[in-house]
Amino acid sequence: MSLSSSGSGLPTMAAGLGLRRGLMDSLADLPEGALDFMEVAPENWISLGGRLKKQFRSFSERYPIYLHGLSLNIGGMAPIDQDLVLAIKDFMAEHQCPIYSEHLTYCGDEGHLYDLMPIPFTEEGIKHVVERVHQVQDLLGQRIALENASYYCAPDQQMSESEFINAVIQEADCDLLLDVNNIYVNSINHLYHPYEFLAALPLDRAKYIHVAGHFEEAEDLRVDTHGADVIDPVWSLLRAAYQYCGPLPTLLERDFNFPPVSVLLDEIAVIRSHQSDYAGVQKETGNGKEMGKRVAR
User: Fold this and answer.
1) Which domain holds residue 135?
2) CA dihedral (111, 125, 151, 225) positive or negative
3) Mapping DSSP to helix (H, G, I), strand (E, B) and coil, where does residue 118 land?
4) pLDDT-derived band of residue 33, with 50, 70 and 90 as boundaries?
5) Per-position DSSP letters for 241-296, written without gaps between them
6) Would you state the pLDDT for residue 209?
7) What value does the mean pLDDT take over residues 11-40?
8) 145 domain-assigned
9) How far is C-alpha 44 from the geometric centre of its chain's CA atoms?
C-alpha cells in the first residue's frame, strides 16, 4: 500500500496548545491568531456526546486538530486494537485532523497499565514494533508519527536509544514527533549529551515538535510532568532543533497545574519568536548530521 506522509503539508511557523477539558472555557474566546493549532488525545474525545461534543466541534471548526494518542500500545504484546484505530480514522476524517502520533512505548499487558513503559532497545523490539506500525498504517492508509519518549529505566538494552529510534522510524516507514523536553529529561536521568542525541535522531522524518515543562525531583532525576513552565535549557534545545529542521509546528504541552491563559500565551509567543529566528532554515535529509541551511535574518 502506498502511504501518504502523516502531517503532509503541515505549515511551518505554527505554534499550538493542547486542548484539555480544564482549559476549554478559558480558550473558548481567544482572539483570532492567538494559536495556530490544537492537539488532543483522540481517546478522550471520540466517544463524547452532548455539550462536550458541541464544544469540541467549536474548536475543530476554528483550529487544525493534531492527534496525539495515549493507548495504542505500539510496543505491547496484546493485539493492536483495530476498533480503536478505525475509530481514530473516522475521527480524523470528521474533524479533518492532519496528523496522528503516538508514543514509542507500550502501555498494556493483559490490561491497561495507565503509564507509558519503555520498549527494550533490542533487534527483537525493533521487529515487533515495526510489524505493529505497519498494521496501524495499513488500517489508517497513512503514516503515523512516533514520539521519542521519556523513560526511567532501560530494560535489556542492546543498543542506544537513538539507534533504536532510527531503526524503528526507517524500517516502519513512519514519521517522528520530536519531543525536546523528553530529550532533556532523559539526558539528565540517563547521563547523555542532549545535543548529540538530538543530532543522532532521524530528523528528516520529524513532522512537528513538543516542548514542555517538567519536575526536578533531585539533582540527577527529572520527571516529565507537563505541569510547569518550560525552562531555559529546553528552550535552547528547541532552537537547536529548528537549526536542524527549520521552524516545524511546535506544541506547548501543559496537562495540569494550569496557569492563567495569558501565561500560556506568553510561552506561545516565545515559541513564535524562536521560530522567527530560524524562518530561513531548510530541513536537511539524514540523521541531523548536517546543519540546516540558514538564511540570515
Assistant:
1) 15-277
2) negative
3) coil
4) very high
5) HHHHH-S--EEEE--SS---HHHHHHHHHHHHHHHHHTTTPBPPSSSS-S--BPPP
6) 98
7) 94
8) yes
9) 16
Is residue 294 assigned to a domain? no
Residue linked to cell 504541552? 253
Taking residue 273's Cβ as centre, other Cβ atoms within 10 Å add up to: 11
Residue 203 pLDDT greater than 50, yes or no: yes
pLDDT tens figures, 227-273: 778 999 999 999 999 999 999 999 999 988 889 999 999 999 999 99
Is 44 part of a structural domain of the chain? yes
Give how many domains the chain has, as a whole number: 1
Residue carrying the nine cell digits 497513512: 142
CB atoms near residue 220 (< 10 Å): 9
The answer to whether 131 and 172 have CB atoms below 8 angstroms apart is no
**CA torsion angle 223 227 233 237 (round to 10):** 90
SS3 210: strand
Alpha helices (runs of H) in 46-201, residue ranges in sequence order: 50-60, 82-95, 123-140, 161-172, 180-190, 194-200
Q: Name the nearest CA neighbour of 150 among 177, 170, 127, 111.
A: 177
Distance, in Å, from the CA atom of 100 to the CA atom of 30, rounded to the nearest integer, reads: 25
pTM of the model as a whole: 0.90
For 143-200, what is each residue's pLDDT tens digit?
999 999 877 666 778 899 999 999 999 999 999 999 999 999 988 887 789 999 999 9
Whether residue 293 is contained in a domain is answered as: no
Q: What is the mean pLDDT of residues 284-294?
A: 47
The CATH number given to whatever domain includes residue 199 is: 3.20.20.150
